[in-house]
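Risk register update: the risk of archive-format incompatibility is retired. Evidence:
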Amino acid sequence: MKRKITAAAAFALCVAMGVCACSPSEKEDTFTGKEKEELAWQPNLDRISPEVYADISNLDLKPGTYISVIGKREGTAYWSEVQAGVEQAAEDINKHLGYKGEDKIKVLYNAPADSENIDEQVNILDEELARYPDVIAVASVAEDASAVQFDLAAENGIQCTCMTDNVAAAKEGARKMSEAIEEKGEILLIAQDSVSGTAKERTKAVTEEITANYPNVKVVETIYMDQFDDLKMQAAADELGVTKEQLAEWTVESSGQTPADEGEEAMSEEVRTKLEDIRAVADGMTDADVVARYMEKYPNLKGCFAVNADAVLLAMDAFETAENEEDIVLMGFDAGKEQIAALKNGTIDGLIVQNPFGMGYATVVAAARAALEIGNEATVDTEYVWVDKENICLLYTSPS
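Archived output:
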């Protein structure tokens, strides 16, 4: 059987969620039995569009079918929710088909262990291709990281993409932020990286929405979390009175890349000492320290928008040390336990909350449909909701 590759663009959210019928004053349900557990995640499935991607009833897979799902990261609250959706779909399919033992449909979730590691994810993909699964679903860390592997399966193409509409979600976040700061002031963006399609789409959409519709609001800086080494060096240089241009020149010289000199040995003692001082200061900085410095750098800063869960947590850490945090509106993507607590106490003003459980579930359904060759939509929308203190009842904690 030919291997088919499904693009599972599974982005963000740290809790399973859906539209609930409660009001802010009503008590949340306590889920205790199996029936209640099923109801807890059903709203996630109800929000998948087209709805066929929440339905396993027509997936008559052959015994022993092997579906491989490769995520961006393991162990975080969000990716644990994606994995929970993947595993629930596999359980539902096997239960529906009555498969047990060696006949069971095998659905294996893998992801880089410690971070969104491009090389590790590519290695996992290579290993899975060598095991000849019927279908592979991939949430690629970087847009071009797996180009070679996808080319090997080009005859089958990309079957389906399960995702949040990042552009629509980010633009709504930009509108909510602009309204919260009364359509006037400066905004800082924080993105999880500078390479993933998710980060690129969201930062671009936020900036474009603000530029097009809010002339008195300006995105003054975008901080990328994969560039903190350079940012720490620049922050340390600023503190020690060294310009960006000087730092760039000294850094190139110290690496020996300048043909006109012999590297750091050719630098003056004064410059070499200054560079060592900068490195020492940079080594003593945390990521949150850097973000706090950027918050304090702009006197008219009114908002901070973080485009994924890790970026939100980083901004929250920076708020603990920034001197002007009380004047800054914090919004972003995704809702884990820490973000929900911060939303309740007022540290966070609003969140774009996605549906990772639904993404994981829909990805397995799409993979099963690819294996059965019954066709897939180009895009499956797993939706998002805007959550603030007024409608926090929209959040459900996953039973997993």
